[in-house]
Amino acid sequence: MSVAAAARVIASSPRRGSRPRPRARCVASMSGETSASQPRPWAVSLARVFEWEDILEVAGDDAETRAVSDDDDDDAPTTSGSNGPERGCKDEFIVIDGANVAWGLAQKLKSKFHTKSRVPMSSAVLMALDHEPWRRRGIRTHAFIPREYVIGYVNSVCDGGGLATVNAECVEYLGKGMWCNRRLMDEVDKGRLTLVSRAGDDGRGSRKADDLVILQRAKEADAWICSNDKFRDHRRERNIGFAGGKALKEFARLRRIDHNFLIAPGLDDETLRAMTNASNWSPRCGANFFDAYDGPSPRLVGSHSELDPFPPHAAPPDLLPITFEPIPTDAMKTARAHFLARRLWEVPRVRA
Predict the structure, then answer these.
(1) In this structure, what is the dihedral angle of CA atoms 48, 262, 128, 317, given to the nearest 10 degrees?
(2) From the record, what ranges are coiled-coil (predicted)?
(3) pLDDT at position 236
(4) What's the pLDDT tens digit per position in 204-251?
(5) Which class for 235: exposed (0-12), middle (13-18), buried (19 or more C-beta within 10 A)?
(6) Three-state DSSP class for 344?
(7) Backbone angles phi, psi at 307, to 5 degrees
(8) Strand order in the sheet with 151-152
(9) Residue 206 · residue 147 · CB < 8 Å
(10) Which residues pair with 335 in a beta bridge?
């Protein structure tokens, strides 16, 4: 269902003896019935993304319908090939803004541990791709990320950040100043992650290239977008499938979901320090951990342990548990409240 079509559909459960009134901004029917080739209504799909069981029950959408079975969950593909979401796909598809989630976790770690630098995190991308509630319901995911986040200079590659912070556990040195994030490259090989070049056809490059690809592919598949970026600075873009800035704004308003990361939920700082001391964990951060490194002398670079005895960006998950959580936008929260109060789906006008 396209956004334009969704905006015209009116969903209501009329009171006895009353006649349903047209509501210009209602966006989807609550009927959960879909054919084998038709996507679920916007409202039902939204409820599945956030596991709103009360709404799914009213919609008649079986929680197990088209969901991945427990036996096959580990082997279930999250995409249908290296190109990611397909045009007209019938099931929910979530396009992940890889750069946005990688920097989102980096900022959370910097704020919590007061580190001197931010390091984009590959683990953030993996957590979004493998979000268990989505996999359990059979919701497919695919991530797009700038190429230099996977293969590039040390300051741009995920889990790099700099010569003193690069994590030897998941980054490989290729030579001549180039580095590769092995974790993300594995996802590229699996077809779950697509690299987007920012070089540009004219050679001048564009830092917004990955955002434009995300918007274009999400519109083609009528997919959800997991990103905290509201895409306000792309509303004048052409040739990405939108009729104009208003159409892009409307799509982002209806299809973009926020995200958050919970750092060590339930553990206070004292407990974390005790766990760190008991684990005898020794971080491998810095260019001096790479035998093939041929850049500036490692003794001039140093290691991250000299700057911070506990580099949180390199901490293993058993030592520093982190949880990814999707968050509905304000418009989606209000739409849910409208339904629970009046059994009407209406997305209010809010500033996107």
Answers:
(1) -130
(2) none
(3) 61
(4) 456 778 888 898 888 888 899 999 998 876 656 666 656 666 777 888
(5) middle
(6) strand
(7) -95, -35
(8) 151-152, 178-181, 171-175
(9) no
(10) none
CA atoms within 13 A on the CB side of 125: 29
Model confidence pTM above 0.70: yes
Which tokens in the block code for residue 345? Answer: 């789906």
d(CA 158, CA 137): 29
Q: What is the pLDDT of residue 348?
A: 58
Q: Give the per-residue pLDDT at 257.
A: 96
- Phi and psi based region of residue 246 (left: phi greater than 0; alpha: psi -120 to 50; beta: remaining): alpha
Question: Which two structure tokens, joined as six digits, stand for 65?
Answer: 């319908």
Largest CA distance in the chain: 82
Separation of CA 273 from chain center: 30
Q: Give the separation between CA 185 and CA 70, rounded to whole angstroms.
A: 27
Length of the chain: 352
Q: What is the C-alpha to C-alpha distance for residues 136 and 163, in angstroms, rounded to an integer?
A: 40
Q: Are 71 and 203 in contact (CB under 8 A)?
A: no
Six-digit token string for 82:
């290296």
Query: Domain boundaries in the chain?
Result: 66-329
- Write the CATH number of the domain with boundaries 66-329: 3.40.50.11980
Averages of pLDDT over runs of 10 residues in the chain (352 residues) are 38 42 37 54 90 86 49 49 49 92 97 91 98 96 97 97 95 97 98 89 62 86 92 66 72 91 89 84 92 74 56 93 96 86 64 48
